[in-house]
Amino acid sequence: MESSPHRVVVLALPGLLPFELGIPHRIFGRAKDGDGRPLYRILTCGLAPGPVPTDADFDIHVARGPELLATADTVVVPASYELGPVHEEGRLTDELAAALAHIRPGTRLVSICTGGYVLAAAGYLDGRRATTHWASAAHFQQLFPAVRVDPDVLYTDDGDVLTSAGVAAGIDLCLHIVRRDHGAAVANDAARRTVVPPHREGGQAQFIERPMPEPQLATTTAARAWVLDRLHEPLRLTDMARQEAMSVRTFTRRFREEAGVSPGQWITGRRVERARRLLEQTELSMEQVARESGFGTAQSLRKHVQAALGVSPTAYRRTFRATAGAGGSDTTPPSPDGPSVDVGSVH
Question: ∠ CA(54), CA(135), CA(142), 5° rounding?
Answer without folding.
Answer: 105
